[in-house]
Inverse folding.
């Protein structure tokens, strides 16, 4: 995607180098927290869980990922057909309105 005026610099997030930096930063941060959770499990740190499975190392990371994937799938395959309208829902084309008036 190029900007409309070639003299203007690219916005910050359109530069591939910056997108890569953000992704690497997110992956490093997630890896550090995931590793910290394993460190807590090895040292016997008590996280005061309400349920037993909350004590498992990496549970919250896996739970968050699965919940996000399920949210996307439910919205795409169940909710989208319910709220989706035809392309010309608000403004019917002239040929369709003429056909109805002729009848």
């Amino acid at each position: 995607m190029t900007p409309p005026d070639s003299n203007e610099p690219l916005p910050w997030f359109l530069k591939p180098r910056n997108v890569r930096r953000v992704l690497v930063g997110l992956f490093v941060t997630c890896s550090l927290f995931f590793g910290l959770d394993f460190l807590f499990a090895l040292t016997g740190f008590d996280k005061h869980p309400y349920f037993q499975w909350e004590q498992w190392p990496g549970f919250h990371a896996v739970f968050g990922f699965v919940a996000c994937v399920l949210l996307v799938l439910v919205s795409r395959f169940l909710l989208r057909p319910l709220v989706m309208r035809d392309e010309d829902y608000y403004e019917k084309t002239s040929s369709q309105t003429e056909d109805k008036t002729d009848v």
Remarks:
- Residues 12-85 form one domain.
